[in-house]
Hints:
Layout: H1 3-9, H2 16-26, E1 31-32, H3 35-42, E2 55-57, H4 62-75, E3 79-82, E4 99-102, E5 109-113, E6 118-122, H5 127-135, E7 140-141, H6 153-159, H7 166-169, E8 176-183, E9 188-191, H8 204-208, E10 216-226, E11 232-239, H9 242-254, E12 258-266, H10 267-276, E13 289-296, H11 301-310, E14 318-323, H12 327-334, H13 336-343, E15 349-354, H14 360-374, E16 379-384, E17 390-396, H15 403-416, H16 441-454
Parallel strand pairs: 2-4, 3-4
Antiparallel strand pairs: 1-2, 5-6, 6-10, 7-10, 8-9, 8-10, 11-13, 11-14, 12-13, 12-16, 15-17, 16-17
The structure holds flavin-adenine dinucleotide.
Flavin-adenine dinucleotide binds at residues 45, 80-88, 91-92, 103, 123, 145-147, 150-152, 154-156, 158-159, 161-163, 212-213, 217-218, 337, 424-425, 428, 461, 464.
Amino acid sequence: MSPRTLVEAREPATDARFLDALAEIVGEAHVLTDPELIEGYTRDWTGRWIGDAIAVVRPADTAEVSAVVTTCFEAGIPITPQGGNTGLVGGGIPSAGSVVLSTRRLDSIETVDPIGRTIAAGAGVTVARADLAASAHGLRFGIDLASKESATLGGIVATNAGGTRMVRYGNTRAQILGIEAVLADGSVLSRWTPLVKDNVGYDIPGLLAGSEGTLAIVTKVLMKLVTPATDTQVVLAGVRDVDQALHLCNRVRQSGLTVEAAEIMTDDGISLVCAHTDARRPFGTPSPMYTLIEVSSPRETEESLLEVLSASADLIEDATVEPGPARKLWTLRESHTESISASSTTPVVKLDISVPLSVMGMFIESLREVLTERFVHVRPMLFGHFADGNIHVNLLDAEPSIAHELTDTVFELVSAHHGSISAEHGIGRAKSPWIALGRTETDIAAMKLIKSSWDPRGILNPGILLPETVG
Ligand SMILES: Cc1cc2nc3c(=O)[nH]c(=O)nc-3n(C[C@H](O)[C@H](O)[C@H](O)COP(=O)(O)OP(=O)(O)OC[C@H]3O[C@@H](n4cnc5c(N)ncnc54)[C@H](O)[C@@H]3O)c2cc1C
């Protein structure tokens, strides 16, 4: 049965008895219905998505999540799982008639195992807290992103987040060992083993990574931790274009240094950050683009990096090197998202794409050309984790009436360059109309089969990811 048919067959019971049943499970204080109180859960970070909900429910543990889901399942009420609400594609924003299930109270860190190098924690624990807990044992959490103070472990699993350390440690899927999740009928699935080698059947934790709340609600995770590099150096180099940055990154790698992070920014982006924060321009003479590369090596990182840089005068216009963590240099990159939002006169059209490294320069050039030709008033701001092929295309001052056409234009160009319309933020509401640009018909049909077998009543995040699961 298709999810659409099931959604139509739903008979919502939005009466007081339903809310009372939720309150009985989580306590009255944790069923929010006051429009002022739920506003922070029904609007997203970008200001582009404004939803509505019957209530926001905040369970404290897996048993409560299970009971809430069972109650919604029986009443046919859709559920929007939500963690830190930092998602950039509208996936955590409810449509009218839904319940927001907030995981923020699932916030206990159960164990940090310094020998097995794992952390077991609730889905509502933030990335920053997980990292702090790991640091207490000389370890680090492998995912790092500018939203870490609010983004939750459940959220990064659900979106399969990448972030600044992906080039070093892989995406969130690569860090998951075990998962506990509540399925659409309220049953609890636990795939919980610290084994790195365990090939019994389908990779369910891997499937839930990137499922954007459409298959199950993640309640607990068991994730790998990493050993932090002890001697890191950060270079910020002005370059002419992205190809020079890619060549520089390649030379750094070939010298034997380990690339911990590699980011690209434009001069416009740096100017914006300097206008909106107290950051200062890095060099007297601006360059068209800047790359920030963080490196490590078992020894003499600084000497090795300086050697590469002095042999790369053909690629670099200017450069500065600082020992890690080099917060000031990183601020120039990490303040981009906030500065962009603050500077645009309209909600920013945020596209997060990836293209093969070999065509990245051509893609950026074509993108600029097409935007200048067809969307004169739109200000493009490009930055991102370029060594993974990932560019965040932010389009400022774009009237909402042209957002669809603008997205269409960029995605067609991405597709023509054999890229992906979602590198790391997911599909959510924002990109579901374009999913066919990223997957074949058979592939989409297979995903729909998975969705309908895991969530036959279509109550988990309808309208997200797969366009036919309307909410
Ligand atoms: C300043 C800034 C910087 C960012 N940088 C990056 C970056 O570098 N890399 C990157 O990948 N992303 C980045 N993001 C996007 C965002 O932080 C990530 O997508 C993050 O993983 C979302 O986590 P969250 O807890 O806020 O999830 P939410 O926004 O609450 O939800 C996101 C999606 O996951 C689902 N979900 C949330 N929790 C659960 C759960 N427990 N079970 C099932 N489904 C769930 C929601 O339904 C929704 O579909 C950035 C965002 C901001 C604002």
